[in-house]
């Protein structure tokens, strides 16, 4: 990646975007033409201007659905007249989403068949590209396999599980005739309060990059025309995950050097892995909405990162340049800005205004035809590569493993590995199998708390209807411990006490209390909060139960680390389950009763107080005063039912030259009595640098499984470029000087020479 300075780029962007004078000529490239290019060029030569602009238009399924009394009719049906308008009159290139809730596979096939038939009436018969957010399994199709959400997959620290989950998701998405997945989220989740934190791989760039590679490979494989693969959509390019306020779609201020160091690498990784499409950040960075940023969408994305795929807007985000961001004085100007900045497809999604404005703009000469051809060329390339011209979809019978036991077990394995044991006083866990337990707390008996948002519905609020055959935490505990040993009192709802008195009374008759707290399902702006603490009702129940003197095991299902410092000290054990998906209830019960030894590690820093939201790789000056800045739990933390010791950290050299690599080895021993998995984490600190260094950065990890008493030697090889940072001139550099390596409780130093 070639670093650039911000100021000249902003000037160019201002000239192009604000003055409205479109460059007359397309950028020149020297790509070798392929068979795909030939097909795309042939199509471009045949399509009319109207048809090309239609290709750039994406509408949501609501626009082509039957309505009754102003609402989408139930059961859902396609309105043929509206579909004709979309595909034949407006030549819409893409349709997205579900209206209201998920559909059966059969209904997806009906929808796609109707779309295919309508496309036959177009003279070029360009297939419609259908996209959904299948972000943790094909969550918009009934009976599909639902996996842990991305944050939980990150907590497994096991990219192999991520690749498998993504591969199954691709299979089950295509099994519902859909070829395009608006996933993965590659935003770095560095703000604990952000309502989409759980859609990310957490706060660390290194961990997120490993997971990025796995998820893109899993979705796309070697060839997206494979009937078991989908085109991924890497989103939300970029900086969306770091709003200053922590509230969704509010401004981010990100200096160019930090943009490159923290917010580009996952996208760079995905592009290197061949990701075919990208979705743009709805927010603004440094006052420039990304949808209007030529700097972000063309200079960095195309010229530096060399992304050749399709760049799609997010929901309504072009028109919002006028209605929300106030950088375009008219909706038409918003369209011109976005298209000239580099947006190829507009997720309009409720009308055809984008089409009308863009047509006018091209006719007036404010948007050149080459820019239309460039955008449409990228859209057609994805359609050709997906093989949609040959097969819009394949017979349902080609997918015998849809929703199968095999796929369920893959989800269960991921759920088991994500669960993170944060506290275990006096080894209270695992619980004896015949103990009498009280299960309490609203999160114990709903599938919504296990799955979170983007599950069956956008907000994930109908999980109990669609996943009624799956086990909640309570049901799984009953199966594990025997119904006669388990009593259940709700105790509290998310934010209001229900029957806490009864819970406290019943706690006295139990050996242990399993208290299930956390968050209800949410996503995007509806999930915005003004206070990161868990609601007072939950805190009250926790403290009252602790006062009974019975051991209390806290199980958290939550999308972000809600503050628990008001009662965490009174809990005997704490189990973080994140949003573990449909098999999460079973996995939690297995961990509670010791059938599974937990091995998850936190993919973010769990804060202890609202004004100390810092990340693990903070600056030296950030932890002030030390006493309030200590997190509840550190990034990378997680206990096991066994114990591990680290010894003999060895570096291949104490003086590393810029052309050599450093080999690091460490002996890890399972010193406990049962087999377990440990994530061996390698941190490096650059002790002095030209801009303030982080106290440490993760530069490697490996998850190993060890039998009791077994020792293994774990090795890492890192090159000086992997120690680089982006300096004040936006350049990736490694500066000579002293570095400290930390693995477990061991540290060693080396010097990087010129
Ligand atoms: C979200 C995207 C999503 C899109 C389509 C938007 O509101 O920000 O993540 O892909 O909707 O559903």
How many DSSP helices?
Answer: 23
What is the CATH architecture term of the largest domain?
Alpha-Beta Barrel
How would you classify the helix and strand content by structural class? alpha/beta
Q: What spatial order of strands do you see in the largest sheet?
A: 11-8-7-6-5-4-1-12
Radius of gyration: 26 Å
CATH topology category name of the largest domain: TIM Barrel
What would the principal axes of the Cα set say about the shape? Answer: globular
Mean pLDDT: 95
Bound molecules: beta-D-glucopyranose
The percentage of residues in β strands lies in 15-25%
Give the CATH level 1 class of the largest domain. Alpha Beta
Largest sheet, described in full? Answer: 8 strands, parallel
